[in-house]
Backbone:
């Protein structure tokens, strides 16, 4: 008992600091300013001007849209602008739709959450699948392999997959742990859920999606993406190359992303989806409890404003080649934020910013908190200046940023070293040495 008391006294100050800083969770009061639309527009437009965001954003409060706009290009080559009706790949925000269709089938008595995978897909090898339930698949605890284990992913995702071919691709992989004994994020697990939906309902995923979700919610622009099919107002996805700028993202056949990331949608449609969740149009109360607290659109503590403050929110970020989807739903204040983008940066987020970079600032506006306006990477500006204008101009820019701390740039020395490595990897050793010399100053 004495030891426990000492430990408690040791950790109490740390816990108090964490709590007071809001690292754990804070419950701010909605404080929407009169000029909220202008402030949010400034954030979005600055990020577009700095090359940090291209896409569409919609924000609502109590059912009323308080901001809606699109920036950047849906097709850079043909100079086609993004609009709020542009269809973006929503990546893993497909999963809540898959969850909802499963829960609807449970409501109808056609599925059980504790039902076995092999009951619904008897072709699945029994030695691998007999212990796997619908619950396991929904919660990524089935032991179905995740894509990070697939060494040739970039090659195999380019192929077209019939349901049979995708099923065979999944069952040839080993189960990575016994069901319920671990956790591994698995798109393949959600592909199996998609197959179960089609098997049990007797309809295609897209047919059931339209019938059970889109039509009741009034959503007219949410559908399965099919590469070969011409789809009006579909955006192209781009990755950012540090040396050459935007380039088309690597190809993925959307049949490979079935059930996990294969849907297209718009910010307008996702707003209608959010609004429908305040009714019983889509799910009954029991199913909504499961949807928000167990399977679908999970609660997370999301940062906002300066410091370490966080707010409880239904939040989900999705990512697929050249696209990202970012959603936040704060039920207590009926706040909804969605940002769909068609530009990404491979692994690092130096030019194209992480979702929280935009979301935390927008939340700060809505909740009356202080925030910093977006800034550009000084390290990247120095790197580009070195390539375009030489070491003297790069050193001059570094000095200006370091001494004046300009409103336009932030300086992160780790990013400078990152670009030094990029130059070395390209065989540009003299330029890398110049970056190292600048870093030391």
Residues:
């Amino acid at each position: 008992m004495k030891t426990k008391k000492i430990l408690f006294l040791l950790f109490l100050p740390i816990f108090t600091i964490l709590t007071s800083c809001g690292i754990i969770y804070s419950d701010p009061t909605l404080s929407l300013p009169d000029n909220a639309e202008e402030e949010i527009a400034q954030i979005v437009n600055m990020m577009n001007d700095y090359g940090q965001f291209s896409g569409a954003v919609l924000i609502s409060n109590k059912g009323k849209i308080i901001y809606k706009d699109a920036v950047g290009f849906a097709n850079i080559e043909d100079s086609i602008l993004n609009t709020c009706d542009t269809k973006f790949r929503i990546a893993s925000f497909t999963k809540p739709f898959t969850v909802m269709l499963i829960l609807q089938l449970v409501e109808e008595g056609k599925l059980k959450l504790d039902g076995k995978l092999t009951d619904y897909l008897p072709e699945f090898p029994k030695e691998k699948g007999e212990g796997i339930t619908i619950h396991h698949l929904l919660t990524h605890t089935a032991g179905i392999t995740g894509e990070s284990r697939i060494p040739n992913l970039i090659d195999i995702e380019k192929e077209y997959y019939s349901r049979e071919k995708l099923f065979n691709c999944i069952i040839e992989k080993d189960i990575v742990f016994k069901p319920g004994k671990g956790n591994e994020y698995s798109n393949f697990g959600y592909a199996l859920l998609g197959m179960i939906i089609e098997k049990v309902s007797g309809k295609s995923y897209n047919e059931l999606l339209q019938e059970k979700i889109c039509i009741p919610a009034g959503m007219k622009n949410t559908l399965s993406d099919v590469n070969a099919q011409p789809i009006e107002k579909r955006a192209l996805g781009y990755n950012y190359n540090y040396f050459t700028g935007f380039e088309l993202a690597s190809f993925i056949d959307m049949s490979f992303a079935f059930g996990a990331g294969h849907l297209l949608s718009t910010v307008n449609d996702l707003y209608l989806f959010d609004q429908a969740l305040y009714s019983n149009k889509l799910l009954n109360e029991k199913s909504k409890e499961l949807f928000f607290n167990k399977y679908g659109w999970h609660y997370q503590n999301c940062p906002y404003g300066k410091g370490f403050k966080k707010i409880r929110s239904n939040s989900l970020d999705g990512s697929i080649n050249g696209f990202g989807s970012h959603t936040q739903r704060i039920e207590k204040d009926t706040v909804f934020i969605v940002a769909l983008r068609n530009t990404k940066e491979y692994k690092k987020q130096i030019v194209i910013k992480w979702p929280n970079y935009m979301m935390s600032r927008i939340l700060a506006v809505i909740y009356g908190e202080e925030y910093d306006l977006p800034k550009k990477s000084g390290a990247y500006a120095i790197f580009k200046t070195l390539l375009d204008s030489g070491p003297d101009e790069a050193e001059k820019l570094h000095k200006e940023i370091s001494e004046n701390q300009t409103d336009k740039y932030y300086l992160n020395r780790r990013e400078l070293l990152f670009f030094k490595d990029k130059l070395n990897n390209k065989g540009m050793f003299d330029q890398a040495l110049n970056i190292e010399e600048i870093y030391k100053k």
